[in-house]
Write a structure and sequence with these properties.
about 130 residues, alpha/beta, Nonspecific Lipid-transfer Protein, Chain A, five-stranded mixed β-sheet, two-stranded parallel sheet, 5 helices, 7 strands
């Protein structure tokens, strides 16, 4: 079990994400900012290519298409599956800047059975 948002956690989640189906055209460079933690702000990124996670880690991605900012409690609830990312977005609990068209293409993918299973598997190997 690895601790959420550590290098080990990113490595383990990339391995699990390799099981996702290819989704042609679903590509994005995503920057995440988690606020309100004990150690301050945490920044991490995902790079999706045709729906597959090709890169992720702590820090910043060059030329992010979309930046998502959430409070630590909401980010953790999303990671655990207690808060749907679509709901967080619609309620303004997830602030989004950048290419809204890309964001609107990404959100439906979070409702697929494959993504829901991946989210459950990641939560099972994560220490929050």
């Amino acid at each position: 079990m690895s601790t959420w948002l550590t290098d080990e956690w990113f490595e383990e989640t990339r391995a699990l994400a390799a099981t996702q189906p290819k989704r042609p055209g679903l590509s994005a460079r995503m920057q995440f900012i988690v606020t309100g933690g004990a150690d301050g702000e945490v920044r991490y990124y995902w790079v999706l290519e045709d729906g597959l996670l090709s890169q992720s880690g702590v820090g910043d991605v060059d030329d992010a298409d979309v930046t998502l900012t959430t409070a630590r409690s909401d980010a953790m609830a999303i990671a655990k599956g207690d808060l749907d990312p679509n709901v967080a977005f619609m309620q303004g609990r997830m602030k989004v800047s950048g290419a809204m068209g890309i964001m609107m293409r990404l959100l439906p993918a979070t409702n697929t059975p494959e993504y829901q299973e991946l989210r459950r598997r990641i939560a099972d190997i994560t220490e929050f």
